[in-house]
Amino acid sequence: MSPPSTLGSTAEPLTGQAPTTDPTLDNTQRASPTIQPHPRTEVEAKPLRDPAKGLQAKKGTKRKLRVAAVIPAYNRPADVEKLLGDLSRIDVRGVELWVVIVDNASTVPIATIPTPAGLSVEHHRLETNTGGAGGFNAAMSRVLSGEGLSGTHEAPDFIWLLDSDVRVSRKSLHELVRALQADEDLAAVGSALIDPVTNVCYELGGRLSRANGYFVPAARGDVDRRLNVPCKYLAACSALVRRESIEQTGLMPEIFIHGDDVEWFLRMGVATGKKLAAVPASRAYHPLWSRKFQTWVRYYTTRNAYAPIDVLGYGVWTRSWRAMVDVLRATAQAMMGMPELADLHLQGLADASMGRTKGYGPRGGIGPIIAATKTRPFADLASAVRVALAARGPNSRLYFHPILVARAIDFKDLPAQIATLGVTIEPGLLEYWKGRGLDTHRLIDTVRAFWRWIKVAVGGWPADVAVVPTGWPTAWFRGRTLIQVTSDGFLVREIRRGKVFKDAMRCLWVGSRLIFKVGFRKRTQNELPPAPKRQVATATTSH
User: Fold this and answer.
1) What would the DSSP string read from start to end of 220-285?
2) Is the overall model pTM greater than 0.90, yes or no?
3) Coil/strand/helix, residue 419
């Protein structure tokens, strides 16, 4: 799946607690806050098929519709096991379903998990990790060519793309199939993506902003479930695609992760002349990307952002603005004392400017990045603050950003840690931060940050230790030791005023040249491997 584009290292603190019921169970009485469709979204709603009509292959025939579910997986066997459990319980009336799991060279083979009774599953293991795109392609190739388990079935009518960490409800597939059956002009349809923590729909299909190249939802929130939502692309978390559409388009671009599904579905619309739509009645529960602190994936979100822009022909302006956002994100990381994350954005831009987008990318691998940016649990925060204060001497000063107190309930264990430290915030300031976000005053926050830098240069640091939200300008130059709170933990960085400023200026200087190169590069699209044709002979199932 490809997340929406944002500036900053992580989303602002998130609200809501985990549901007490299984999110995969359909519940029409479940509370759902009303959220309007994304601004600038033009929703041309199209009615679904009459619910009273059953699923059938063609008018006048009664054979079951054939659906092959394809799932790429890398480690996290517990997620795959839960998903298989969901698939064993879904409504498959009128459907012949089988599952192909591609193991991207997991440390422990995924095939070791149990298979639920009654579910037809094939495990196919690759020798190397090819990313989400490579995993989907390997699975789709086996299905389309009739290898392994797929050789025991006739060619599928539809292929169901599923992320390994998605959860599906009983009617997820049924509603997708019904939508495709109802409208022959649809090449593919996708589920409404639900945040399992808040139960809020955060994406119903997607589109690209012409202004800045962002990937944005076509709609989100509480929409009429009787209507399809037209869109430009679908997330591969849960998308049902006609076999003929894949044969006409080809397989996904081999760009490892991020943006693979976006470019693929955009090009599917062009290749087939058909439309795409999200189906609100089909609900899939997938972790919201911003709940995970983004580290090595920054390289791919930057590198792979530009081919979709070129597919739509948006041109120099859109590419340049998108590149500027990536440069600002790099600069923000440099200001937080994390040049290794800043370099990922610059590497991604450099490779994008030269059209080097295939396969695995970050120089030096992701191991050093993962080690350097490993977060600690919130339960350790109070002790980490005390250690940092002790290291600065008996009169050391602590700054605690008000938004972390105002939104403490968003983070497990954080309220208790704040109470342990005895942090108090002036009521008026606390109320102010309850009503504003980290991304709503970027310009004034940046100006204030540079004013703090001047005061640091003249009179010293305002605090010895500062606990702040990571990435955002409001956190810059708050303290000599920054304890940075991310969406899933915290990390500690020592800040040297001269070095971070030098690193930031380097990002702006190098980045300005890359903005020009990316903006004026030749229009580029990634190669799509051809879809294989079905083999005549039936193959043996592999495990």
Assistant:
1) -SS--TTEEEEESB--TTEEEEEHHHHHHH-S----SSSSHHHHHHHHHHHHH--EEEEEEEEEEE
2) no
3) helix
CB burial class (10 A; 0-12, 13-18, 19+) of residue 53?
Answer: exposed
First and final CA of the chain: distance in angstroms? Answer: 26
3-state class (DSSP) for residue 424? coil
Longest CA pairwise span in the chain (Å): 84
CB neighbours of residue 125 within 10 Å: 17
Distance of alpha carbon 202 from alpha carbon 5, whole angstroms: 14
Q: Are 392 and 492 in contact (CB under 8 A)?
A: no
User: Containing H/E element for 230?
Assistant: strand 227-231
Beta bridge partners of 189: 240, 277
How many whole angstroms separate alpha carbon 522 and alpha carbon 355? 9
- Strand pairing class (46-47; 65-73): unpaired
User: d(Cα 189, Cα 279) in Å, to the nearest integer?
Assistant: 7
> pLDDT (tens digit, 9 = 90+) per residue, 341-369?
999 999 999 999 999 998 887 888 889 99
Each residue of 206-232: pLDDT tens digit?
999 999 999 999 999 999 999 999 999
Tokens of 5: 């584009």
Phi, psi of 67 (to 5 degrees): -130, 125
Q: What's the CA gap between 168 and 239, in Å, rounded? A: 11
Residue 463, number of CB atoms within 10 A of its CB:
20
> What would the pLDDT profile of 404-430 be if each residue is shown by its tens digit?
999 998 888 999 999 999 999 999 999
Query: How large is the C-alpha radius of gyration of the chain?
Result: 24
Cβ neighbours for 62, distance < 8 A, ≥ 6 positions apart: 56
HSE at residue 487, side-chain half, CA atoms within 13 A, is 17
DSSP string, 112-179: GSPPPTT--EEEEE-SS--HHHHHHHHHHHHHHHT-GGGGGSPPPSEEEEE-TT-EE-TTHHHHHHHH
Q: Do residues 144 and 532 make contact, with C-beta atoms less than 8 angstroms apart?
A: yes
435-456 residues labelled b (16+ CB within 10 A) or e (exposed):
eeebeeebeebbeebeebbeeb
- Dist CA 344 CA 341 (whole Å): 5
| Tokens of residue 370, six digits | 């993962």
CB 135 within 8 A of CB 104: yes
CB-count exposure of residue 19 (10 Å: 0-12, 13-18, 19+):
middle
Question: Taking a C-beta distance cutoff of 8 angstroms, is the pair 201, 176 a contact?
Answer: no
Q: Which residues in 50-111 belong to E strands, given as ranges?
A: 65-73, 95-103
Q: How far apart are CA 272 and CA 246, in angstroms?
A: 9
Ordered domains of the chain (ranges, CATH): 61-291 (3.90.550.60), 297-501+514-518 (no CATH)
* Beta bridge pairs of residue 207: 216
Q: Percent helix, strand, coil in the chain (nearest 5)?
A: 40, 15, 45
Count how many Cα atoms sit within 13 Å of the Cα of residue 338 in the half-sphere of its side chain: 32
128 contacts 105 by C-beta, under 8 angstroms: yes
